[in-house]
Amino acid sequence: MDSIIVTGGGPLRGTIPIAGAKNACLTLMPATLLSDEPLTLTNAPRLSDIRTMTQLLESLGAEVAKLSDGLVLSMSSHALNGARADYDIVRKMRASILVLGPLLARQGQAVVSLPGGCAIGARPVDLHLKAFEAMGAELDLRDGYVHAKAPSGGLKGGVVDFPFVSVGATENALMAATLAKGTTVLKNAAQEPEIVDLAQCLQAMGAQISGEGTDTIEVQGVDRLHGATHRVVTDRIELGTYMLAPLVAGGEVTCTGGKRSLLEAFCAKIEAAGAEIVETDAGLTVRRANGPIRAVDVETEPFPGFPTDLQAQMMALLCTAEGTSVLEEKIFENRFMHAPELVRMGATIEVHGGTATVTGVPKLKGAPVMATDLRASVSLILAALAAEGETRVGRVYHLDRGYEHVVAKLSGVGAQIERVKEDD
Ligand code: EPZ
User: Fold this and answer.
1) Pocket test for ligand 1, best of 28, 96, 309 (most atoms within 8 A of CB)
2) Least CB-packed of 38, 237, 273, 345 within 10 Å?
3) Bridge partners (DSSP) listed for residue 218
4) Does residue 317 carry a pLDDT above 90?
């Protein structure tokens, strides 16, 4: 098992390239199951979660070829061998549930393992299942698996009214609706850039979709989809993560490929805290405006609100801000696991339910800490960039799920960071 060692210092200077989005790629890849023609994704991120999705698709009989050092994924599912997604793969990654909609729509039936629990929350999939029922499917939960069956003649268009916003349920229903008979309307749909990216890819495959990026998406089902090539949208969470680095450690960093429109609420929040952001064709350049970072209050919300996937990283910044910040986590019920680790580094944080109160301290101190989930792991690395002395972050396999080349990207702008093998 590896650890990452960071020796605090700063300032940081230079450029960090931002990869394609994990959370877009994880829904774009299952879209290949909707057609017997090839789907090619470019600007794909090189992450362990992408390898897990590849394993899952291959277990269903799809072919996934990694080209150009993994930046291009050429996929085809002309010869699916069944429609069963096994627990052994699904337990590694919740996004595996995103094969259910495409398989049900294309094959008329599917058996998919339920994902099970997660460190950041219970994360049920009831909204996904309700959406398929609204399209006429019969669902049977048995032995830890969802057994789904479409009506004869295939799924039927219907109205899916989500009681609250779910990114995954919107993506699953959207993919299924492309091949359903008639019109499907998704109400209170998620509006994330990854949803828009999925819709654009499906449209390139011949799907008839309108309203993506709004809370109401309409889909006219078609008989079949054809092949396409699609560029994966920039990873706005990786982008936001690295935009925080020069705010924590000082200096100036340009994140290439970044666009403010992907992260407006986040950009406004860090500007309120004292950041200066300059947008050019190259990307987003970030530095402290003048003087130290100030405390701000944060509330996580579905897009276009402040992303929950940047909450942990924002907390790392606010640990040394002037004043007291209140962070409210509104999406997941257990997403403050990074707080006690930051306290080990000398932060002052009180957590009560979904609210964390962070009182800024002048400086953090390096310490051995443990990653508990993907975003928590990178928040510890951010905090360590300006901490006194050395921080050793354990269990960084969490990080590999969502960040490629962290050590190279941060050392490229002057951070003292290395990855070491630990005895198990
Ligand atoms: C996606 O998860 C992302 N994952 C998450 O990113 C992200 O945090 C989340 O959206 C919110 O933005 C991927 O895209 C692979 P939801 P998803 O369905 O689709 C509850 C990361 O760090 N809910 O929008 O699972 C759920 O428990 C990851 O990259 C139900 O109750 O999120 C949660 O509290 C972490 N029933 C809330 O809704 C359902 O059927 C929002 O979940 C579905 C969701």
Assistant:
1) 309
2) 38
3) 185, 210
4) yes
Task: Give the nearest ligand 1 atom to 93 CA.
Answer: 15
* 4, 393 Cβ separation under 8 angstroms: yes
Q: Residue 349 has what pLDDT? A: 98
- What is the Cα–Cα distance from 34 to 159, expressed in whole angstroms? 21
> 23: Cβ below 6 Å to ligand 1?
yes
- The pLDDT value recorded for residue 414 is 98
User: How many angstroms from the chain centroid is the CA of residue 290?
Assistant: 32
Tell the residue nearest (CA) to atom 34 of ligand 1.
332
Take atom 25 of ligand 1 and give the residue whose Cα is closest.
Answer: 168
| 3-class SS of residue 48 | helix
What is the average pLDDT across 179-202? 98
Q: pTM for the full model?
A: 0.98
Q: Are 244 and 197 in contact (CB under 8 A)?
A: no
In angstroms, rounded to a whole number, what is the distance separating the alpha carbons of residues 20 and 274?
28
| DSSP designation for 194 | H
Distance 123 CA to ligand 1 centre (A): 7
Ligand 1 center–CA 98 separation, angstroms? 12
Q: How many CB atoms lie within 10 A of CB 282?
A: 13
Q: How far apart are the CA of 95 and the centre of ligand 1, in A?
A: 9
Ligand 1 centroid vs 414 CA: distance in angstroms?
A: 34
3-state secondary structure of 350: strand
Q: Over the stretch 394-409, which tens digit does the pLDDT of each residue have?
A: 999 999 999 999 999 9
Judge if the beta carbon of residue 98 lies within 6 A of ligand 1. no
Whether 398 lines ligand 1, by a CB cut-off of 6 Å, is: no
Q: Is the per-residue pLDDT at 10 higher than 90?
A: no
Cα–Cα distances (Å) from 167 to 194, 198, 232, 331, 397, in that order, read 9, 11, 17, 11, 24
* Strand, coil or helix: 334: coil
Beta strands 72-76 and 298-299: pairing type? Answer: unpaired
Asked if residue 136 lies in contact with residue 159, where contact means CB atoms within 8 angstroms, the answer is: no
Note the pLDDT tens digit of each residue in 92-149: 999 999 999 999 999 999 999 999 778 888 889 999 999 999 999 999 999 999 999 9
- Looking at the annotation, which residues are catalytic? 118
Mean predicted lDDT score pLDDT of the chain: 97
Confidence of residue 323 (pLDDT cuts 50, 70, 90): very high
Q: Which DSSP category does 405 fall into?
A: S
Residue 424 has pLDDT above 70, yes or no: no
